[in-house]
Automatic annotation (TrEMBL):
It comes from the Bacteria. InterPro entries: IolE/XylAMocC-like (IPR050312), Xyl_isomerase-like_sf (IPR036237), Xyl_isomerase-like_TIM-brl (IPR013022). This is Sugar phosphate isomerase/epimerase. One of its GO terms (molecular function) is isomerase activity. Residues 21-269 form the Xylose isomerase-like TIM barrel domain. Signal peptide: none annotated. Keywords: Isomerase. SUPFAM superfamilies: Xylose isomerase-like. It comes from Bacillus capparidis.
Length: 277
């Protein structure tokens, strides 16, 4: 079982702090969603002029960067917007080559009043442009079950228009269940062959909040995480189990020192239960 955390969970940590915590808690990878306030990390010295030093730190620690979680969005409203996302894609492809990273996470985005049919046409056209950039590169885009592309049926409909091995799925196991009551078995039946990576979080309903739910440590909410884990194992999933602790957006939740340790312990516990079942 390969564990990682995204840097959303430790927005104020340095590379050294991330690596130290990952090693202490038995993680195998760190997924970059920004670094010290900058989401376009390719602009930072650590991932440009000083990237050799960053790569050395990861190699010496025997840690991977399994995914770069970009801000690239598939639905756009203008050619200028698409051009910016293509620019971002080019820069992340370069980082993927340098750090031996196979995946770039992308968003479907909010369709902003467009019909679903029109949005799919726009997204399909934009994906084709991105796939053209990806040509001859060993990098895969991962569409997250998020925003207006959370339900498995909506994602499946998109794949009817874009059928490429260079576009796969990162299953945020929280969003489909919490926002739409979608059961894990259904998600897997529709998207399973495309799921190459997973994001993990837990929550419980709290209607007085803006989101309508409250994020919490894993196992303290009611997302059926143990069942999802068992399903993934039974289906032969061998990718990463990545904690997406949204400390950046939700400062009230536990500090990363607590959450990262708890996630690793929780996942090892349910893995042991599955093995002994």
């Amino acid at each position: 079982m390969k564990l990682a955390f995204t840097t959303l969970g430790c927005p104020e940590w340095t590379l050294e702090e991330m690596i130290s915590n990952a090693l202490e808690n038995g993680y195998q990878g760190i997924d970059f969603r920004g670094y010290l306030g900058e989401f376009d990390i390719y602009k930072l010295p650590e991932f440009s002029t000083e990237r050799e030093e960053t790569r050395r730190k990861f190699h010496e620690s025997n840690l991977e960067i399994p995914c770069f979680s970009s801000s690239i969005t598939l639905f756009t409203e203008s050619d200028a917007e698409l051009k910016q996302h293509l620019y971002e894609l080019i820069n992340y492809i370069r980082l993927c080559h340098y750090f031996d990273t196979p995946y770039i996470r992308v968003f479907g985005g909010h369709i902003k009043g467009a019909t679903r049919s029109a949005a799919i046409q726009t997204v399909a056209r934009n994906i084709e442009a991105m796939l053209d950039v990806l040509k001859n590169h060993g990098v895969t885009l991962l569409l997250e079950t998020h925003d207006d592309w959370t339900k498995c049926g909506d994602v499946k409909e998109l794949f009817k228009h874009v059928d490429s091995s260079k576009l796969q799925v990162v299953w945020d196991v929280h969003h489909p269940f919490r926002l739409f009551g979608e059961q894990a078995q259904k998600t897997w039946e529709i998207l399973g062959e495309r799921i190459k990576y997973t994001h993990w979080k837990d929550s419980y309903v709290k209607k007085e909040t803006d989101r309508g739910y409250q994020l919490c440590l894993l196992g303290e909410g009611d997302v059926p995480l143990e069942n999802i884990f068992s399903l993934l194992k039974e289906k032969g999933y061998d990718g990463y189990y990545t904690l997406e602790w949204e400390k950046k957006w939700c400062p009230e939740i536990e500090e990363p020192e607590i959450a990262f340790k708890q996630f690793a312990e929780f996942m090892r516990s349910i893995a042991e239960q599955y093995t002994n079942a």
